[in-house]
C-alpha cells in the first residue's frame, strides 16, 4: 500500500525507490490510497493507473472530479481570480496578468499541457467513518478538512499509526482560499487529531513523529502556527489604524525584516495563508473591509 504517491513528475523516482526497498517498484503495489487531492499527493494518480493494476482508493467526495482529473488539478493551480480580488489595484491586476503570461509562455505548464486530459477510472471510494481493510491494515477514515476541503486522515488502531497527510506539518500548513481551504475547518481538524495517541504519526512532509507525547507536541505546534498568525494579523492591522492595510502590506508587516520572502513559492504561500486568516477574521466580525481592498480592525 502506498499513501499519497506524490507529484506526477516524480513517478520514475517512486518506481526506483519502491524497488530499492524491496517492494518491486510500482508494479509491486497492491493499493494506492490518498489523504487529499493536492498535486504533490494525488497528482500522479491518472499516470500511475497506466503503469499499475492496483486499485486507487479515494474519498467519495472526490469522485465527481476523477473523470477529468488533470483539468481539476489545473483549476486548483489557477490563482489568478483570487489574486485579482485579494490585492489592491494596480498590484492585483498586474500579478494576475503576470501569472497568466507565465502560463501562456509555457513557463508554468498545466497538467493537461504536460500529460494530456488525464482521467482516473474505476477508483474505489470510501466514506468518513468507514474502515478500510487493505491486507493486514485496518484504516479508519477520519475527517481532516481545512488544508483541503476534502482532506482525510487514516487511523490504524492495531498498530496505532496515524496517516495525517498535510494536516500536521513541521511548518505552517498552507491554507489557500483559491483552492477552497478553510482556517476554521483546519482548527477543528487539529482538535480532532489531538485526541489520538499514535505510536507513529506519518505526515505528508518532514520526519515522521514517534510516540504520543511527540504527537501532542506536533499538533500543538500546528495550532500555535494558526494562533500566532491570527494574532499577528490583528496586531499589525491594529497598529495601522483606521486606514488599514492591503494584503501585500499586511504580509510585509508580518515578516521579520519587512521584506518579501524567498523563494517566490514561499512568499505565495505566505500571502495565501495570511489571506485565509483575513477572510476568517472578516467573517467573524473582527475585521472590516474598506476600499482598496484594505482591512482594518472593527
Q: What does this protein look like?
A:
The protein has eleven helices and twelve strands. The protein has about 300 residues and is of the alpha/beta class. The strands form three sheets. It has a six-stranded mixed β-sheet with strand order 5-6-7-8-9-10. A hairpin with an 8-residue loop joins strand 6 (about 135-145) and strand 7 (about 150-155).
Tell me the series of helices and strands, N- to C-terminal.
EHEHHEHHHHEEEEEHEEHHHEE
What fraction strand?
15-25%
Basic shape: globular
Spatial gap, N to C terminus: 51 Å
| Overall pLDDT metric | 95
Uncertain segments: none
Helix content: 40-55%
Structural class: alpha/beta
Number of continuous helical runs? 11
Evaluate the radius of gyration.
20 Å
Q: What is the spatial order of strands in the main beta sheet?
A: 5-6-7-8-9-10
Q: How would a crystallographer describe the biggest sheet? A: 6 strands, mixed
Number of strands: 12
Amino acid at each position: 500500500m502506498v499513501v499519497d504517491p506524490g507529484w506526477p513528475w516524480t513517478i520514475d523516482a517512486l518506481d526506483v525507490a519502491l524497488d530499492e526497498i524491496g517492494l518491486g517498484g510500482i508494479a509491486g503495489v497492491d493499493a494506492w490510497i490518498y489523504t487529499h487531492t493536492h498535486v504533490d499527493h494525488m497528482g500522479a494518480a491518472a499516470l500511475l493507473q497506466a503503469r499499475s493494476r492496483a486499485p486507487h482508493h479515494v474519498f467519495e467526495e472526490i469522485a465527481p472530479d476523477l473523470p477529468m482529473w488533470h483539468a481539476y488539478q489545473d483549476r486548483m493551480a489557477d490563482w489568478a481570480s483570487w489574486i485579482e480580488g485579494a490585492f489592491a489595484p494596480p498590484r492585483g491586476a498586474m500579478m494576475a496578468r503576470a501569472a497568466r503570461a507565465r502560463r501562456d509562455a509555457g513557463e508554468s505548464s498545466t497538467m493537461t499541457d504536460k500529460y494530456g486530459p488525464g482521467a482516473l477510472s474505476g477508483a474505489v471510494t470510501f466514506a468518513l467513518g468507514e474502515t478500510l481493510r487493505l491486507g493486514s491494515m485496518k484504516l479508519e477514515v477520519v475527517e481532516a478538512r481545512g488544508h483541503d476541503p476534502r482532506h482525510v486522515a487514516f487511523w490504524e488502531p492495531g498498530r496505532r499509526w496515524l496517516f495525517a497527510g498535510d494536516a500536521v506539518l513541521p511548518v505552517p500548513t498552507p491554507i489557500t482560499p483559491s483552492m477552497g481551504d478553510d482556517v476554521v475547518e483546519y482548527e477543528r481538524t487539529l482538535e480532532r487529531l489531538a485526541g489520538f495517541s499514535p505510536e507513529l504519526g506519518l505526515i505528508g512532509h518532514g520526519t515522521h513523529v514517534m510516540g504520543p507525547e511527540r504527537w501532542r507536541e506536533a499538533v500543538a505546534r500546528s495550532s500555535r502556527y494558526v494562533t500566532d498568525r491570527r494574532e499577528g494579523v490583528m496586531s499589525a492591522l491594529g497598529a495601522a489604524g483606521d486606514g488599514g492595510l492591503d494584503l501585500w502590506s499586511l504580509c510585509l508587516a508580518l515578516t521579520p525584516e519587512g521584506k518579501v520572502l524567498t523563494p517566490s513559492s514561499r512568499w505565495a504561500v505566505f500571502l495565501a495563508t495570511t489571506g485565509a486568516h483575513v477572510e476568517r477574521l472578516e467573517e467573524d466580525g473582527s475585521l472590516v473591509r474598506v476600499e482598496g481592498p484594505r482591512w482594518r480592525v472593527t
